[in-house]
Amino acid sequence: MRHITWSTSVFIMLVLRKRTVVLLGFIFVVSSVTVLRLTGLHTGGYQTEQMFAQKTQSVSEIILPVILQTTYSAVAEDLRAPADARNPLIPHIIHQTFETVMIPSELESYIRTVVNMNANWTYYFWTDVSARNLVKERHPNLLDIWDKYKRNIMRADALRYVVLYEFGGAYLDLDVEAYRSFNRITYKYGCIIPPEPIEHSALLYNMTLLLNNAIMFCRAKHPIMKALMNGLEGSMNHKNILFATGPIFLTNMFNSYVNERILNKSVIINNDSSGTTVFHVSGEAYIVDIYIPNVAFFNDEIDYTLQNKGFQQTCKNVSDSSNLVRQACGHFLNREMKRQMNFLAFTGHKWIHLWLRSKADNQKTSKKNISEILAEKTITIF
Predict the structure, then answer these.
(1) Which is the most buried residue in 31, 177, 298, 373, by most CB within 10 A?
(2) What does each C-alpha distance from 360 to 91, 117, 353, 369, 370 come to in angstroms?
(3) Are strands 122-126 and 93-97 parallel, antiparallel or unpaired?
């Protein structure tokens, strides 16, 4: 007891002797907090302004950690939309495509959900013939590349970048199911590119971020779509389709697009629990450029049919794995048996993989004309 009383007395004496120092310190702290808050208000509240302190920072040092922190976290609120919005930034057009108008019957229910949930949207359907005609008419410089592609899926990949650049709207693979209307998401963002689940990016490709080109929303003439079209020539000879025209190509081009603008300080990155936004400067203000939403909104369904065994094998023993792989395995093992559709989800990708089937198997598949599937909807077949 004596020891405690003595220590307390000494402490009180020191405080009294140095009350002036404490007071000054308190004033300094309050002033510093005030300055920081004012600075945050002045810069629009973007915490990532500090990222531009060093011009040599790369996209992997800046945007990928930000996305990893937000894209795979739980969300409790809906995708944000301006309350006073009047005109959509992304036009209400749905684009879908197949080799011909004869669609595998197994896809019919998914197509119907997309149209029924977005009854007031215009529907464009593209075939191989109309796709080539569009490229020939609007982007003849791509025609030689188009004709040299060895796989039709490569042309299908390239087409989605072309139609979104030319017309804007939503591009959806035929095995994408819609759970609710897309109207809400078209008023705030100029381009929305959802990522694949972390199980795919980390466990299949050892990538922090993997964007998926099966589900994309964008305004017409967006520079990211122009960049994707411009990048097709440089990757056309890659043996792996994912790198040539698919999701890895999309991700690499997105990284280059953002990295270039980070270096010249024409964009800033902002993140919250619902995703990561790339803002670009226009005049004196920053405006929305591209949005990478939380995976829960569009693409939270993993490819069980094709990849489940691989996931299981990879996650058997992760003690020597990277932090990224351990995190992905945590998601996979914790959610494998209880993964349910989030009530905030707009879409789900069913991973049918028609392009991996043999011609013989595809010929045996029951088919139905897209006009018959959407008989009650006015559609445009190009």
Answers:
(1) 298
(2) 38, 34, 15, 20, 21
(3) parallel
Identify which of 278, 297, 276 has the alpha carbon closest to the alpha carbon of residue 286.
278
Q: Are 291 and 195 in contact (CB under 8 A)?
A: no
Minimal CA–CA distance to 225: which of 158, 301, 294?
158
Q: How far apart are CA 293 and CA 302, in angstroms?
A: 16
Residues facing residue 347 across a β-bridge:
178
For 109-113, 126-130, 376-380, which range has the lowest pLDDT when averaged over its residues? 376-380
Q: Which of 96, 89, 254, 115 is nearest to 168 (CA)?
A: 89
Q: What is the CATH number of the domain that holds 58?
A: 3.90.550
310: phi then psi, degrees, rounded to nearest 5: -65, -40
Q: Which of 99-108, 139-148, 254-263 has the lowest mean pLDDT?
A: 254-263
Structural domain that includes position 126: 47-77+87-381
- Cα–Cα distance, 203 to 329 (Å, whole number): 8
pLDDT band at 287 (very low <50, low <70, confident <90, very high): confident
Residue 3 inside a domain? The answer is no
Tell me the C-alpha distance between 69 and 258, whole Å. Answer: 18
Give a yes or no: residue 131 inside a domain.
Answer: yes
The pLDDT tens digits of the residues spanning 176-197 come to 999 999 999 999 999 999 999 8
pTM: 0.81
Q: What percent of the chain has pLDDT over 70?
A: 79
* Residue 187 within a domain: yes
Work out the end-to-end distance of the chain between its first and last CA atoms, rounded to an integer number of angstroms: 90
Q: Tens of pLDDT along 119-155?
A: 999 999 999 999 999 999 999 999 999 999 999 999 9
